[in-house]
């Protein structure tokens, strides 16, 4: 019994030592004002959390809001995504990679459902020229009926504030606009090709005309750091509503990196249970306000958010 306990303690100590070595105190990190790893109490934050103006999530994002009906579905011909399925008001419908179509099942509940409101199945009608037999429904955990297309549960994105928007495309690497047949909407010839997007590494470098070399994710979206975070101890000050605007960069294989430092290349287990990639032990994010590769709309937001250099430094931040 003692032998097993000693071995277990040794493994734990070794893991802690490895993390300490990767993210040591030599980082000289800024002290964050937000949630710390473990049970430490968060410090007081400014009213907007330091991540820009609030709002823009839509009334559907309110806790306890009933799923909104889709009505007469339609097809939006997006120049960048091809044919995209919409509801009767022209809002883009999305599918979630963590759901299943056979059998249909939704795994977006609680806080997730506030950001990604489920589309109610009642009174949904197939878009003109599409296969009506693909329209169905699934019973969610709360007993409500959610619209499905080819078995995939359908959602809206709370950041889309009007027709013709698809700000949820590629969020977290798991959310995608739905095509009329329930598949993921694909990039067509008017935008970057699907092959070009697929060829990007998990993290790579793009030369921006204003910012120079910056890190991008596998979708070509700009990667950011938050000045209120710290590298040692590794802490994220972006929690709650902040994550709606600044989704985390999910874990990336160390072998799936091109031109970017792998120093402090650690997967950060956040207190909220989300796994987040870090560079030089700094947590990484994307910005929901960037709608396509090449956008840098998050640069300098709130004086706290900045693009990341290949060496994991803040790009363009005041000294």
TrEMBL record:
Keyword Transport assigned: no
Key words of the record: Lipoprotein, Signal
Pfam family, one: Lipoprotein_15
Biological processes annotated in GO: alkane catabolic process
Domain of life: Bacteria
Endpoints of the signal sequence: 1-24
Spans annotated as Disordered: 26-63
Biased composition, class Gly residues, residue ranges: 49-58
Transmembrane segments: none
InterPro entries found in the cross-reference section: Lipoprotein_repeat (IPR005297), SCO0930-like (IPR047910)
Listed PROSITE patterns: PROKAR_LIPOPROTEIN (PS51257)
Family annotation (PANTHER family): BLL4220 PROTEIN
Protein name, entry field: Lipoprotein
Organism expressing this protein natively: Streptomyces pratensis (strain ATCC 33331 / IAF-45CD)
